Amino acid sequence: MRILVVGSGPVGLMFCAKLSREGHECVLIERHDFNQTFSRASTLQPATLELLSEFACWPELLAQGEVVSDVMSWNLERSTQQRSSYDALSAQTQFPYRLHLHQAALRAELIAELQASRCCCLVDKADAVALQFDRCNKGVSVRVNRFGSSGLSQTFQGDYLILCDGARSVLRDQLGLRFEGYDLPTPVVRLSVPMIPDSLQGQLAGVSYVQSEGGSVSCLKMTDGWRFVLRPRLSELRQALAGTAWARQRLAGVFRDCVPAQWWESIPAMRDSYRVAQRCVKTRQVQRVFLLGDVAHVTNTRGGLNMNFGLMEAYALASCFLNHPDWQALQHWNLTWSRLTQDALMARTQQLLAGRTPRFLRPSSESFGALMRASLLDLLSYSKSLRR
Ligand SMILES: Cc1cc2nc3c(=O)[nH]c(=O)nc-3n(C[C@H](O)[C@H](O)[C@H](O)COP(=O)(O)OP(=O)(O)OC[C@H]3O[C@@H](n4cnc5c(N)ncnc54)[C@H](O)[C@@H]3O)c2cc1C
To answer: Which of 2, 70, 163, 250 has the most CB atoms around its CB within 10 Å?
Structure first.
């Protein structure tokens, strides 16, 4: 059985790594150079750590990431703090923590693992431009344009095609699938700094959701500094996207009681921004083509839920293929993960869209269950069970 995979983001790599680990061959097609590194998502949840821990690169991933056990919500206006610890999950998982790891590091380690396994044929600088089913529905082919080879075009044939080519997939459009939902009016702005003053560090947990008069800020501790995630209003958009001044001013205002305003002006900082949407496809399967990750769903990025969910469904589909699936088993995977996308992923992230405090940080007797759901541990059995 020959499986073609388009897209070497974290989700496509997870799918190939699981197949390769069990000695199953696949072909991975990527538009860019495999050595290209850029960082986007940064949070791996406990359920995903359970899956990644079976790979040879796990010790390297753990060594490169920041282990975060404590989460807090801090309302500066009301001077209230609510803390929660992942230790509460110790009986449920070997990994009662989040791992903050740059997406680029996860990608680099999984690519190195695939190269070492020799089961995966890695094809980079190859833009997949068209797909076609064969007449008897026995296979599927993908046409790619190879960059750097004077526009050479090449066709790959396989029994199945797995699309992991991200939110802007052109192949999804060719299947006639609609990516239904809506875009949020303003993007998320991130400011990364190499350090913060002790006066602030002493107050924050490894993940802190801070509410203040001026808006909400999420603070993430990374191995190489801190990431602040800010949500500008529509009226602030122009300044927010022009350099770092807006983000520095916002942080100076939010933390005015513990950090002198000038400190934010002098610290070296990197800003980036990205659009946030709430969109998904209704089905993950069209004949012999399956959709995984951002090509199938994009949501609010808080807690990295969208990427983590994509990694879990990729592991589940690879396990399904390793079990010599019949149509029924593959359709069962499609129905299960299409339903979970609506009922779990979209529903959970919808609650966070308004920047509200996560449920597990609200004082309530349900906080344990909410922490399980935020860690995606309640969905782990769907990743690990192969059949109905
Ligand atoms: C700027 C930015 C910042 C983000 N920040 C965060 C964050 O802070 N937290 C968070 O949780 N999430 C964040 N996200 C979202 C997160 O990065 C995604 O959820 C995650 O990368 C999804 O992985 P994926 O493998 O499904 O898709 P992607 O990572 O998008 O990977 C798709 C891959 O397919 C390749 N590809 C696309 N089209 C083709 C083609 N035609 N032929 C061949 N290859 C193709 C692309 O080059 C890419 O390598 C961010 C996204 C962006 C864009």
So the answer is: 163
Is the domain of 163 the same as that of 204? no
Q: What is the CATH number of the domain that holds 18?
A: 3.50.50.60
Closest Cα to atom 30 of ligand 1: 166
Q: Which atom of ligand 1 is nearest to the CA of 274?
A: 1
Distances (CA, A) of 333 to 60, 165, 221, 285, 383: 31, 19, 36, 9, 10
- The reply to whether ligand 1 has any atom less than 6 angstroms from the CB of 187 is no
The pTM of this model reads 0.95
| Closest residue by CA, ligand 1 atom 8 | 41
pLDDT 10s digits, 252-283? 999 999 999 999 999 999 999 999 999 999 99
Structural domain containing residue 51? 3-64+101-183+279-384
Q: Is residue 81 part of a domain?
A: no
Q: Which of 94, 76, 51, 93 is nearest to 368 (CA)?
A: 93
Q: What was the pLDDT predicted at 365?
A: 58
